[in-house]
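I had to read the description of the data format several times before I understood it. The format is easy to grasp once an entry is in front of the reader. For illustration, here is how one protein appears when written out as sequence plus structure tokens:
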Amino acid sequence: MPLTADVAAQQVQERLRALHRLIYDIEAERGRNEQCIEQILRGEKAADCSPLNEDSSSSSQQQMQLKSLYKAGLTAAEQEEKVLRSALSRIYEIRAIKNERRIQARHAGNKETIGCGALMKMLLSAAQTLPLHVGRVGERAPPLCGAVPADAGHVARPGDAVAALVRVSDKEENWILAEVVSWLPAQGKYEVDDIDEEQKNRHVLSKRRVVPLPLMRADPRTDEQALFPKGAVVMALYPQTTCFYRAVVNRLPSSAADPYEVLFEDSSYADGYSPPERVAQRYVIAIKEGKGRAT
């Protein structure tokens, strides 16, 4: 059932109100956490300052008190994590509602042409605000987080960003940034729109010609295995364009907000590679060998 503008606005407002309350809850939980940490530090200091000749019963009592403080601190941290994840869920729900409305507007023919400069800003914003995977201890990054590929049976949803291999002439094919319009199960093909609206091109492509872009960023501090290693051959979106080209990873992101540094294949340079370019995680994907080479 289509999501009307009024219903969408109501749903967004409900989640914004919930998010507002959760922000206050987060501050309260953070305050309790800080108190727990201060008590633990005082308890540890008192234990360190205890005289060596103190009787065993007093030492044992101090240890029990410290254990109790550690347990309270752990409980407080877990509760703060729970509230933080609830707040993130509300944010993701708001994003989903707005994206659904945008897709509906496009299907209704209300798609305005975006200039090149505005498009580049939009793509940068989409990369910077891509949800960050915040896993639990021991949890591995899921498919389509950073460099983790999609599952074999994955089907991209309408509105998802993809790299699409399209024919631009009788002798040339390019990997372009596109958006999924629909999945055609009977044909096993995607219908996608070129993200560059000035082109106004729609393509029907087999699944092997479409590579889903990451749905989440990976944090190098917790999910380094979800990033491409230095020296990996990838496809990356060339800066200020909407086309993907072969590149080599030169430097990994040092934080969740940082881009990769890549070297694009370029025969005009003596060593065959361009100077380092910075490309966001969202626009660096596994290469399809033999396809999408720069001309």
Observations:
- Confidence is low (pLDDT under 50) at residues 291-295.
